[in-house]
Write a structure and sequence with these properties.
Elements: H1 2-21, H2 25-35, H3 40-64, H4 70-92, H5 96-119, H6 134-151, H7 155-166, H8 171-196, H9 204-224, H10 230-252, H11 257-287
Protein name: Probable membrane transporter protein
Transmembrane segments: 32-52, 73-92, 98-116, 206-225, 232-250, 262-281
Membrane topology: Multi-pass membrane protein
């Protein structure tokens, strides 16, 4: 029961982050499951099956608050679902020993991106709402969906900043659209995992706990997206992902012993500096 509650809390925190930032549910949850010794394929499968429920709840909540652009959902979700299905097939065909360092490297890079993106970003350029070409949305959806399933995360970290950088969508619409379209991506990835894995292999207790926590958090996150200081939360999440994946990442690239300890300490120091920077910038912005 204690483990269930802890996993549910993990799902709740991950969904609060994802629903507020438009990214990081898969990265956060997969990172923590890998740290518990779950294999990459089972970790990603558990997260995506749980996401079928959490993304549905999140999508409904964002829709209620008017955060969804349904035209863009369609053009991203379908290619994203196709990419996620193939990504699941790729991950389950690779041995756990081979997949672990690859997934850790991918998650580490995403963590670094999230940290830089939220701590050191400049102000977003003014939004001028315009259509975004379908020939741009479809490949974006396919690539993000594939990496999301194969790497245990990536739909939000790839889709959200790409759409934000276009300057053609309101930030809340970006978050709501990405979170809502992720329902199709999670469903397709789950089908791919269930076809490749034995039904009994899936740790359903983990799925249930992540789902319970995520469903509770979804409506709260959809509301708080308008008021939460995203810079601080994104910086905190990026650092956690970096530190959690750092050991496996360094082992994969051949950094060991004292050198690994020094790199680990440097990462922690950079994260602390980035967090302080984010807090100070947020305070200055609030004061102006």
């Amino acid at each position: 029961m204690q483990n269930f509650i802890l996993l549910a809390l993990m799902g709740l925190i991950a969904q609060l982050v994802d629903g507020s930032l438009g990214m990081a549910y898969g990265v956060t949850s997969t990172t923590l499951l890998l740290s518990l010794g779950i294999t990459p394929a089972l970790a990603s499968a558990s997260v995506h099956i749980a996401e079928v429920g959490t993304t549905f709840a999140s999508g409904v909540s964002h829709w209620k608050f008017g955060n969804v652009d349904w035209v863009k959902v369609g053009w991203m979700a379908v290619p994203g679902g196709i990419g996620a299905f193939f990504g699941a097939a790729v991950l389950t065909s690779v041995s756990a020993e081979a997949a672990a360092p690859l997934v850790a490297i991918f998650l580490f890079c995403l963590g670094a991106y999230i940290l830089v993106r939220f701590s050191f970003r400049r102000r977003e350029r003014p939004v001028v709402v315009k259509p975004i070409a379908r020939r741009f949305l479809a490949p974006l959806g396919f690539g993000a969906g594939f990496l999301d399933a194969a790497g245990g995360g990536g739909w939000g970290p790839i889709s959200t900043p790409t759409l934000l950088s276009s300057g053609r969508m309101e930030p809340r619409k970006v978050v709501g659209t990405v979170d809502t379209s992720e329902f199709v991506v999670a469903s397709a990835a789950s089908v791919g995992f269930l076809l490749a894995l034995s039904f009994t292999e899936v740790p359903w207790n983990i799925v249930g706990a992540l789902l319970a926590g995520g469903v509770v958090a979804a409506p709260v996150a959809a509301w708080v997206v308008r008021v939460l200081p995203a810079r601080i939360l994104g910086t905190a999440v990026g650092g956690i992902i970096l530190l959690t994946n750092a050991r496996t990442f360094m082992s994969a690239v051949g950094i060991e012993g004292i050198a690994a300890d020094l790199v680990y300490a440097a990462i922690a120091a950079v994260w602390l500096a980035a967090l302080v920077h984010a807090v100070l910038v947020n305070r200055r912005a609030a004061a102006t």
